[in-house]
Write a structure and sequence with these properties.
Elements (H helix, E strand, L loop, with lengths): L2 H41 L4 E5 L2 H17 L4 E5 L4 H6 L5 E5 L13 E5 L10 E3 L14 H9 L3 H10 L7 H12 L4 E6 L9 H6 L13 H10 L20 H17 L10 E6 L11 H13 L3 H8 L3 H28 L1 E2 L4 E4 L9 H8 L8 E6 L4 E7 L2 H5 L4 H10 L4 E4 L3 E7 L3 H10 L2
Parallel strand pairs: 1-2, 1-3, 3-4, 4-5, 9-10
Antiparallel strand pairs: 6-7, 8-9, 10-11, 11-13, 12-13
Helix pairs in contact: 1-4, 2-4, 2-5, 2-10, 2-11, 4-5, 5-6, 5-10, 10-11, 10-12, 11-12, 12-13
Length: about 450
């Protein structure tokens, strides 16, 4: 090898090492800081664990609670919808607080005493000890949620780490989430499956499985049990186990039965001119072999149950079912049924009432859709082909309006950042908001709605 070639090879290797360091070192630092966060958490005498109310908040909160229970450490727990100025004032008398799935977006946490933050939202100006993937070059919108972050800190309840990620729309799992998934597969706590996307593969009878399907929405089939029953009859797929009165679930179908059913659903989409939706039918899913074969067995179903508990004010039930308590599961099942009913009614209203306001789609759900599910409804409406985001509103507490925004991953790839746009558009009109690039939420005084819509439409 000549001197010139050797020099070129040396500099080439140096560039490779430099690029690898930029990838590896932030992850190493992240795991080091996770260890430090664990030490800080367990050094607290009796902290107040404050977590968010959505699925990721419930899952991550349950991981922290589980870790403290296993260590025999005392704690208190509280679930909140938002960490606004009123909440900050309320917490000023607390000596020790662990914020979970919130805290990173409000610099006023610096006014509090001993604080540990476990978050994954966009963050700035926070001086308190925080473990947040966004600080390490890990995308908190796609690659790691608060539940995954909590798992890497406490190394317990891996299934909740995955459930929280799925509940925050971070699937299929990539990046640091993928590392967590690989650990789960290796130790036998998780299995990966490629199958029909519909909710209830393991828990719903076939007719309800098809009739209540809405992700993706199938015209002429979704919310039509009569059509679902006819489709299964036409395909000669038995509804009950042979020789038994027990109704079959989708997971019990043979490979041939699944193939025929999926083909029939695809045919419906083609007939309706929705051929692009066929790609949405099959997805990667995650099941937990150590959990019972009910709504907690598969991550998507589990996340919906936890989301229902949190959003309807039953965070304690969400924590109980997360930790495997049978009584908690029974309560959660009842809450879930009510939640799904509200979603069905909400999505039916939404499909007929979305307006095109030029720069964005708009759904006015005031008086019809609860603030607890307006974000979920908007997420169900979004299609990958959309070239603009959707803004949904609902009546909030204390004369406020709850705002939820969602967009496609394609728009995020083009540079759209809903979290920053929403934060800017509400900051000057007495509101508070933020979130991720792909999904964000806010609360504003109800009399400032028109101002918000004008501001949101002007920002990029």
């Amino acid at each position: 090898m000549g001197l010139r070639t050797a020099v070129v090879c040396y500099h080439f290797r140096q560039r490779i090492y430099k690029n690898l360091s930029s990838i590896i070192l932030p992850m190493e630092k992240f795991f080091e800081d996770c260890e430090e966060a664990r030490r800080i958490a367990f050094s607290f005498k009796e902290p107040l664990i404050v977590h968010h109310y959505d699925c990721d908040g419930i899952s991550s909160g349950a991981i922290v609670v589980s870790a403290f229970l296993k260590e025999g450490k005392p704690f208190r727990r509280e679930c909140i919808k938002k960490l606004d100025d009123a909440a900050i004032e309320r917490y000023k008398n607390e000596k020790e607080i662990i914020f979970v799935d919130l805290g990173g977006g409000n610099p006023r946490v610096n006014e509090l005493k001993d604080v540990l933050i476990i978050d994954h939202h966009q963050t700035a100006g926070v001086a308190k000890h925080q473990v947040n993937p966004m600080l390490y070059g890990i995308d908190g919108s796609d690659e790691l949620s608060s539940s995954g972050t909590a798992y890497f800190i406490f190394r317990t309840n891996l299934d909740l780490g995955i459930t929280g990620a799925v509940g925050d729309m971070q699937w299929p799992l990539t990046g640091a989430n993928k590392k967590m998934l690989e650990e789960g597969v290796r130790i036998g706590e998780v299995k990966v499956e490629e199958d029909l996307r519909f909710y209830g593969r393991y828990s719903r009878p076939l007719v309800q499985f098809l009739g209540y399907s809405d992700d993706p929405y199938i015209p002429g089939l979704s919310y039509r049990e009569d059509k679902a029953l006819k489709l299964l009859s036409d395909l000669q797929i038995p509804l009950k186990r042979e020789g038994e009165e027990v109704e079959r679930t989708y997971s019990e179908l043979s490979a041939d039965e699944k193939k025929r059913l999926i083909s029939a659903i695809a045919d419906i989409l083609i007939e309706r001119g929705l051929i692009t939706k066929i790609d949405e039918l099959i997805c990667e899913s995650y099941v937990f072999p150590l959990r019972p074969r009910n709504e907690t067995y598969e991550a998507n179903e589990f996340s919906t149950m936890l989301n229902a508990c949190g959003r309807w004010g039953y965070s304690d039930v969400g924590i109980e079912v997360s930790l495997g308590y049978e009584e908690g599961y029974k309560k959660a099942l009842s809450i879930l049924r009510m939640h799904r009913k509200m979603l069905r009614e909400g999505i039916e209203f939404a499909y007929s009432n979305v307006q095109d306001l030029g720069r964005f789609y708009f759904l006015d759900g005031r008086g019809v859709i609860s603030e607890n599910i307006i974000g979920t409804i908007c997420g169900m409406l979004v299609r990958e082909s959309w070239e603009k985001p959707i803004v949904g509103i609902a009546l909030g507490e204390n004369n406020t309006i709850k705002i939820s925004t969602r967009c496609s991953r394609r728009l995020v790839g083009k540079g759209l950042n809903l979290g920053l746009i929403l934060k800017k558009s509400v900051s000057d009109i007495g509101g508070v908001g933020g979130g991720h690039k792909i999904a964000a939420g806010a609360s504003i005084p109800k009399e400032r709605l028109n101002e918000f819509l004008l501001l949101f439409g002007k920002l990029d």
